Amino acid sequence: MTDIRVGQGYDVHAFGEGDHVVLGGVRVPHERGVLAHSDGDVVIHALCDALLGALALGDIGVHFPPSDARWKGCDSRVFLRHCQALLAERGWRVGNADVTVVCERPKVAAHAPAMRANLAADLGIEVDAVSIKATTSEKLGFTGRGEGLAAMAVALLVRA
Fold it and tell me: d(Cα 36, Cα 97) in Å, to the nearest integer?
């Protein structure tokens, strides 16, 4: 079974000052922003970790360390495109990607189609190979208390 690989990723950001969050490359209005070195896009960060994990190339922090000023405020789609380039260089492509956002607010469903379109475009795959789902944590834990948000991702890679 050397023709497929699976990776999983997880990312978390605490809420801070601001009037929006970025999810899947989409600016989502919200009464808070996130505390992050880049734009804090938990969807893309989790997906990048899934892709890098499937390639056994570490995680997003290895490739884009928060200690590097070049990535301050960076659009996370740059990170995703970098991961896509690494896949292509090694003869892989994304078969499908599945992301779950965990938060009480903001509500994600209305923005999911645009997120899917962004991720598919950056990965060079069809939109129907990208899933974005959202769930709450039933008011439990840091997401339940409205202190931040999280995302989990899984990606299947296939030989190109």
Answer: 24
